[in-house]
Amino acid sequence: MENIENGTELKMMEELTTNAQQIQEQLLEEILMKNAATEYLSRFLNGHADRQLFKKNVPIVSYEDIKPYIDRIANGEPSDILLAEPLTEFYRSTGTSGGQPKLIPATAEIADKRAILQTLSEPVMKKYFGELEQAGKSLELMFAKPEIETPSGLKSLYCQLLLGLIRRDEVVTFGSLFASTVVRAIKFLEDHLKELCYNIKTGQLSNWITDSGCRNAVSLIMKPHPELADSIENICSCKSWEGIIKKLWPKAKFIRCITTGVMSQYTEQLDFYGGGLPLVSRFYVSSECIFGINLEPLSKPSDVSYTLLPNMAYFEFLPVKKGCQTMSPEVQFNGLSDHHESTEMKTKNQDIEPVDLVNVKPGQRYELVVTTSAGLYRYKVGDILMATGFYNNTPQFQFVERQNVILSIDADKTSEADLLKAVTEAKSLIDPLGFILTGYTSYGDTSLAPGHYVIFWELKEKEGNNNKELDPKKMVECCYKMEESLNYIYKVYRKQNAISALEIRVVKPGTFDALMDYYVSKGASMSQYKTPSCIKSKEALKILDSRVIGKFFSPKTPA
Question: Can you name the residues that pair with 394 across neighbouring β-strands?
Fold first, then answer.
């Protein structure tokens, strides 16, 4: 990749990426100087802030290993048992991509690093899209807390869309954290269009919006706009909603959301609704840590690489062979969760040497391990990345998949990426029929022997009101296409009848909205929500099964 254009605003990025090794070493030293005396690290370092001792003695861990310390802090013990810097809050992970929500310690320093991330990103966006702040407003769908006061929990979304429509001629960017939220917002807009237009026409907010914060925010700009309401209704009355985002917000330059990893399943829908607007994944972040930035925001979602920022955390990488991921506590095996190994057991079994940031090799896959100033020490994030190259002396990575989302019936192991590939190839068979796949998930059904993979699909017509009937023969072909696309080991066990035929269950429109509502009601953040690739919750499975409108099975064993 060529260097970013010169300029004082970009000097920091150039220095960071050029001096990556030095910055990483200094950062680790600072973390150890601050935290070596904590109860957790003193078990391994005896109070010494030594980098080599850290790598030799401190084990590589997952969340369950540090959870007892986090629980103690959450229950009132001093936070210095885990970190020296004062704890300001806990971030709550989504709890949908790999299990239960996690509480992640956060400090003032972490907040400062998020501000630095914005500073580093702004000149990149300016290079490709110009002065966005001067051009207009950003319609960014955000949710500070779970909204569970209404059956759908969507008061905030309703009001944000309402304000976005009222100011439609000022909006230059549209998006949310994840692609799934943007797609959900468009579907919500379609379902509530008449009510939204009535609010705009009359200047009165619907009575069911009772939250005072929402009502007060809307009241600041709400007044009767009958011509605007008529214009919006006219735009949305077309037979197809293809390009509707560009039509409703004509000055929009791009759609901002994460479209990598499991979110790539939504790119087809966003392309359909976006009318040619670029899909921009700006950052690689999680509740645990800030990782990197996309220096080429116009890259296609499938080509996006993130440049890791060496000042955000100390990074290590465990080499991973494709198809040989280690089973984790979240893996569904014979319908049950595997027992979690203790730190001591994992330490004894660790014969894979982690690689430092600057020593990764392009083309190699790695599991990401981070050490932060907020109490995470050699912590496995659970993400599998592939090194794609370097920007100056700093590596760039593509997000491949989550380590801990795997389907398994016997000794087969189907990863998140494997599943996405199979679904993508299978749905291509129904694209010519005018259907869009709006959501999918899976689980391993072992209620009968042998067990089999169950894949839930929600479909939407590109045009019309979902009155078109599915072709059973075509859906059976989709089942077989999925099996053909799965890995060698799966096919071996299918041939041995250790796994029975793959099943696709088609669910009613709106089912995946109901699934999201369930997870939000359990504490997941709406803006962070990701549809789980593999269902482990019995309650969530009931929601899906209660809305099934068609079941289809693979007709034969894959070759």
Answer: 391
